[in-house]
């Protein structure tokens, strides 16, 4: 396949994309003359006119921008809702299959709503997490939709890296992302996309080196640890349990090195104490409500209502947080969901490695909240299309796919007599 064929875009897609961007720009300039919400009407028209697969790119690009455009809704929120509504109202919804992981995820959200209604918490946060989860499921209706998402991840990472260069060697927060943990996870996802692509090896190496440079400049241990987990998962044989078991195993192995890394790179020495206090508070809440938990975002709800007796310490661990929020039942449902997702992603390297990265980050972060870039990527990148052979494992570690034989040079053919297995995961 030639480069021209790879980048070929339909003229209607170009026109609709340009028209949507133009309407969006005009909406920010025109304002509301004579009290008429012309800006909002033009913005909604842009979301309807723009190509469907472009809307998830808008979501991940603008999710860290908290300026509201319609009541409490941001532009990212509107783009996510517009995507789900447009896809649900079209025949393309038939391309979204039902898998075991999606059924368990639905049960997890139902249980979370139930314990929050009967306990204490914020229903709105659960609603937005459900929107992000639906976004990830709907993205699997077509391979093209996922490729647009990958383009959005790489595009945002590239823009942030370019804007960061004049600020080097300061910590990499990101101009738009504005958080080193979120910025780092975005770069890790970009690294996975580049490493698993079928682009020329030299180009992949250059892009990977740039992304690794950005990851190092975040000076965030959880991001470095997630990158280590991804690297190890790429080398090990693919098994459904590896994304679940590998992060805690590596955490136990590298725990004695945390203080050395902290001193060597002059990192924040107080974050460890804050996390340990949060872990203890989360485990105490789990002890009080072991089966059902106390509800999602109970600490924020208690603070808003002036209710005492609930710890306000943030719990920087997804699993401990789940234990305190939704109890043992919710914790097991989410664990089963991750296991099923790992099983379904065995033939999709991007999904498999993204799940590993997300679970690696989750040991020292609690990313599931509204407006979280990590949450959106965690619920969209690991999703994959249902495949009959998705349960079949391979004894070989992952290697990037090679180009088609017609695109190989004679030098390439001489040195690659045996073709490695391709992205399907089957042996050559």
TrEMBL record:
<protein>
    <recommendedName>
        <fullName>Integral membrane protein</fullName>
    </recommendedName>
</protein>
<feature type="transmembrane region" description="Helical">
    <location>
        <begin position="100"/>
        <end position="119"/>
    </location>
</feature>
<feature type="transmembrane region" description="Helical">
    <location>
        <begin position="357"/>
        <end position="379"/>
    </location>
</feature>
<keyword id="KW-0472">Membrane</keyword>
<feature type="transmembrane region" description="Helical">
    <location>
        <begin position="240"/>
        <end position="261"/>
    </location>
</feature>
<feature type="transmembrane region" description="Helical">
    <location>
        <begin position="209"/>
        <end position="234"/>
    </location>
</feature>
<feature type="transmembrane region" description="Helical">
    <location>
        <begin position="125"/>
        <end position="141"/>
    </location>
</feature>
<keyword id="KW-1133">Transmembrane helix</keyword>
<feature type="transmembrane region" description="Helical">
    <location>
        <begin position="180"/>
        <end position="197"/>
    </location>
</feature>
<feature type="transmembrane region" description="Helical">
    <location>
        <begin position="40"/>
        <end position="63"/>
    </location>
</feature>
<feature type="transmembrane region" description="Helical">
    <location>
        <begin position="148"/>
        <end position="168"/>
    </location>
</feature>
<keyword id="KW-0812">Transmembrane</keyword>
<feature type="transmembrane region" description="Helical">
    <location>
        <begin position="318"/>
        <end position="337"/>
    </location>
</feature>
């Amino acid at each position: 396949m030639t480069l021209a064929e790879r980048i070929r875009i339909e003229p209607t897609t170009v026109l609709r994309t340009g028209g949507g961007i133009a309407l969006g720009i005009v909406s920010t300039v025109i304002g509301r003359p004579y009290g008429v919400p012309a800006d909002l009407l033009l913005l909604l028209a842009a979301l309807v006119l723009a190509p469907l697969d472009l809307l998830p790119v808008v979501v991940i690009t603008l999710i860290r921008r908290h300026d509201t455009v319609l009541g409490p809704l941001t532009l990212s929120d509107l783009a996510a809702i517009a995507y789900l509504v447009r896809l649900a109202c079209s025949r393309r919804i038939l391309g979204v299959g039902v898998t075991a992981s999606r059924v368990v995820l639905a049960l997890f959200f139902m249980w979370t709503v139930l314990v929050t209604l009967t306990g204490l918490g914020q229903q709105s946060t659960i609603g937005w997490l459900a929107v992000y989860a639906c976004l990830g499921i709907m993205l699997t209706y077509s391979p093209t939709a996922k490729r647009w998402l990958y383009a959005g991840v790489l595009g945002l990472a590239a823009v942030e890296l370019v804007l960061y260069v004049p600020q080097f060697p300061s910590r990499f927060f990101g101009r738009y992302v504005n958080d080193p943990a979120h910025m780092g996870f975005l770069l890790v996802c970009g690294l996975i996309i580049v490493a698993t692509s079928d682009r020329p090896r030299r180009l992949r190496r250059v892009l990977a080196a740039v992304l690794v440079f950005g990851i190092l400049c975040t000076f965030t241990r959880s991001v470095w640890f997630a990158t280590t987990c991804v690297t190890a998962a790429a080398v090990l044989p693919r098994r459904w349990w590896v994304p679940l078991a590998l992060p805690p195993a590596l955490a136990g192995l590298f725990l004695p090195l945390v203080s050395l890394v902290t001193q060597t790179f002059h990192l924040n020495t107080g974050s460890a104490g804050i996390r340990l206090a949060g872990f203890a508070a989360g485990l105490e809440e789990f002890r009080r409500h072991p089966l059902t938990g106390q509800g999602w975002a109970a600490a924020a709800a208690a603070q808003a209502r002036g209710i005492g007796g609930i710890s306000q310490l943030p719990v920087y661990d997804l699993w401990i947080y789940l234990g305190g929020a939704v109890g043992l039942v919710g914790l097991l449902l989410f664990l089963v969901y991750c296991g099923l997702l790992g099983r379904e992603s065995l033939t999709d390297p991007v999904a498999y490695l993204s799940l590993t990265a997300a679970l690696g980050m989750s040991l020292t972060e609690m990313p599931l909240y509204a407006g979280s870039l990590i949450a959106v990527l965690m619920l969209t990148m690991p999703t994959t299309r249902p495949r009959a052979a998705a349960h079949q494992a391979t004894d070989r570690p992952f290697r990037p796919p090679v180009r088609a034989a017609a695109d190989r040079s004679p030098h390439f053919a001489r040195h690659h007599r045996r073709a490695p297995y391709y992205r399907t995961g089957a042996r050559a």
